Amino acid sequence: MMENSAANLTRRKPKKSKKNWKKPLIITLSILIVLGGLGFIFQKELVRLAFNMFASGTVKEALDKSYKAVGNEEAPVVEHTDPFSILLLGIDQRDNEPSRSDTIIYSVVRPEDNKVLLLSIPRDSYTEIVGRDVKSKINSAYAHGEAKMAIDTVEKLLENKVDFYAAINFHGLKDIVDAVGGVELPIKKNIENKLKIHEKLFVEANKPIYNGEEALAYVRYREDSDFNRTMRHRIFLSAFMNRALEVKNLTKIPDVIKIAGSNFTTNMKSDFIVDFAEALYMKDSIPTISNYMLKGDGKMRSGTWYYDLSEDDLTYVRGMIASWLDPNTTQLIEPDTKDEADTAAETN
């Protein structure tokens, strides 16, 4: 009898102990659930606080140094909630070469709709270069008259205004990409320059993340069509934007701006950029990006290859831009990207 009692007593002890540790565990889980719920409810407020702590101050100082007016013109006054246009210029200056704009993207931002239109203009497009009274490749405008001539030429071509410009030298791209931990790129086949006249580069396919050097090679690759090269530029821009807008990269924004440094110029005032960036971070999702490239056909003139733009396509694009810039537009003209999707499927 005593042995059975002792055995029963021994068996009951763990039950009592188990009951004791259950209480603090339940309390702890309850606290975590409550804190998690509060974190979700106040997520935007926390993001705003983090942005103001880590980004706005130092970013504003760095952007002030990158400001460069267009001639004697001050930047237009635009509310960061209104649609506005930006001419994005990628300057790929190499040794003993003029500073031509290898990437020319006319973009429209609609902050209220959280939408962005990226319209690529092929660098070899044959058009009037405003200020020189000649017709030539559009990328020569920046080489002869920097941002002002590039803006005037694009406005003449598209018959729509350019509110702002942002020019970045590709020399700064490598470190900027590394600062945000690399980018995701949809590379399905190895990319490699094989011609002797081009710099050697190689990018391995199907990697989850690509570093700055690989991203630079991705946008610089020349040994296919200008159509595909321009499409890669837009793909990279979208990938970098998605990466930079991740909340975990908030603290890296000052480093990104500092790295850009002398490689970046714009006529956007720092207050405008900071307010706009904060508004982006406060959205429930990243911006929806729509892409399009001006269409045309290649043609040789005096031994030089040019890209003749389609007049029908120009008319279509001009109307599309106008609808995006109109704050009262309820039904945007969305770009038809079927041809681009088919080309991407064939080349990736």
Instruction: Enter the CATH topology name.
Output: Aminopeptidase
Shape, principal axes of CA atoms: globular
Cα gyration radius (Å) = 27 Å
**CATH class call:** Alpha Beta
What is the N-to-C order of secondary-structure elements (H for helix, E for strand)? HHEEEEEHEHEEHHHEHEEEHH
Main β-sheet, in a few words?
6 strands, mixed
Q: Determine the number of helices (DSSP H or I, runs of at least 4 residues).
A: 10
β-strand percent reads 15-25%
CATH superfamily: LCP protein
Strand order of the largest sheet: 9-6-1-2-3-10
Termini Cα gap: 82 Å
Structural class: alpha+beta
How would you state the average pLDDT, rounded? 79
Gross CATH architecture: 3-Layer(aba) Sandwich
Helix content: 40-55%
Low-confidence stretches are 9-13, 35-43, 341-348
Number of strands: 12
**What is the number of domains?**
1
Keyphrases for this structure?
348 residues; Aminopeptidase; alpha+beta; 47% helix; 6-stranded mixed sheet; two-stranded antiparallel ribbon; single chain
Describe the structure.
This protein is an alpha+beta fold. The protein has one domain: LCP protein (Aminopeptidase). The strands form four sheets. It has a six-stranded mixed sheet with strand order 9-6-1-2-3-10, sandwiched between helices. A two-stranded antiparallel sheet has the order 4-5. The chain has a two-stranded antiparallel sheet with strand order 7-8. A hairpin with a 2-residue loop joins strand 11 and strand 12. Helix 2 packs parallel to helix 7 and helix 2 packs antiparallel against helix 8. The protein is globular.
